[in-house]
Design a protein that fits this description.
With 192 residues, the chain is of the alpha/beta class. It is 38% helix and 18% strand. The chain is built from 6 helices and 6 strands; from the N terminus they run E-H-E-H-E-H-H-E-H-E-E-H.
Length: 192
């Protein structure tokens, strides 16, 4: 059984909603176990992350970057960085904001650089935007067109679970892809 942690901060519940759907996708692959971990609960002991095979980061986009809570968590991993305790683990990231763009790419880049500094292996989002194949925009997976990670849009002041169906579908596909990539990585290790 491979273990994946979905580490997130959610100010209003939107990022947590997407995190839960990512977990559903992760666990749709046999022999994958996923746990949701709040970033703020890890700041006292981030070393617990070393026990996982893969880590998926999730943060809302606030003012063009990760939330302050998520950044505080990132900063607590400095001792782990010095020892490279996360080296060669799989990583990926997702973000939510209320606008279609909302500078979400900056947030994903921050999560990417954080992972690279820890020596991790980044997994992007290979899902082609389905609206190009005639799927209605709101129903389309990866409707926002992000390949570096998962993006979702929560309407301004919307309920925490009020997402376009395509964003929910994309979150599950994204989580499943992460699990399948982890399986491929471990299969290659077994052959070596």
């Amino acid at each position: 059984m491979k273990k994946i942690a979905v580490v997130y901060h959610s100010g209003h519940g939107h990022t947590e909603t997407i995190a839960r759907h990512v977990v559903d996708g992760v666990q749709s692959v046999p022999d994958m176990a996923a746990v949701l971990l709040r970033a703020e609960n890890l700041t006292a002991n981030p070393e617990t992350l070393a026990e996982f095979d893969g880590l998926i980061w999730g943060s809302p986009t606030y003012l063009g970057g990760v939330s302050g809570v998520f950044k505080s968590f990132m900063d607590t991993t400095g001792k782990m960085w010095r020892k490279q305790q996360l080296r060669n683990k799989l990583a990926s990231g997702f973000t939510v904001s209320s606008l279609p763009a909302g500078d979400k790419q900056s947030t994903l880049l921050s999560l990417f650089v954080f992972s690279m500094q820890h020596g991790m292996i980044w997994v992007g989002n290979p899902v082609l935007p389905e609206q190009h194949n005639g799927v209605p925009y709101e129903q389309a997976a990866n409707r926002l067109g992000s390949w570096s990670g998962l993006m979702a849009q929560a309407g301004h002041a919307a309920l925490a679970d009020a997402f376009a169906p395509g964003d929910i579908k994309a979150a599950k596909m994204y989580g499943r892809n992460f699990s399948l990539t982890l399986n491929r990585l471990h299969a290659e290790e077994t052959i070596s």
